[in-house]
Amino acid sequence: MDSRLLTSEEKEFLVKAINLMEELIETLEVIQDKELVQDLKDALKEVEEGKTKPLEELIEELNLEREI
Questions:
Q1: Do residues 30 and 37 lie in contact, with contact meaning Cβ atoms separated by under 8 Å?
Q2: How far is residue 68's CA from residue 24's CA, in Å, rounded to a whole number?
Q3: DSSP alpha helices (H): ranges in 1-68?
Q4: How many CA atoms lie within 13 A of 57 on its CB side?
Q5: Are 64 and 55 contacting, i.e. CB atoms less than 8 angstroms apart?
Q6: What is the largest CA-CA distance in the chain?
Q7: I need a surface site. Which of 3, 6, 29, 47 has the fewest CB within 10 A?
Q8: pLDDT of residue 45
Q9: Whole-prediction pTM
Q10: Structural Rg of the chain based on CA atoms
Q11: Contact between 30 and 36 (Cβ < 8 Å)
């Protein structure tokens, strides 16, 4: 008789379910933060308007080439 309570497939499924639940909780927390939601909307608008710079340019500007 097998003494294990869960199979490896069941454990894998539970881990995925837990991760999904954590993501959902985090999403709900973000949605409830009105200031953060507005900041995200503002940031997306700036991207759409071309007010951002490429990541590579920012890395170079901040002298982070060795860090990344």
A1: yes
A2: 30
A3: 8-32, 34-48, 55-61
A4: 3
A5: no
A6: 65
A7: 3
A8: 97
A9: 0.56
A10: 21
A11: yes
Distance between CA 64 and CA 68 in Å, rounded? 7
DSSP state of 18: H
Contacts of 37 (CB under 8 A, 6+ apart): 30, 31
State the residue for tokens 């060795």: 66
- Show me where the domains of the chain are located: 8-61
Q: What is the reported pLDDT for 2?
A: 62
- Give the pLDDT means over successive 10-residue stretches in the chain (68 positions): 82 98 97 96 96 93 89
Contact 32, 24 (CB under 8 A): no
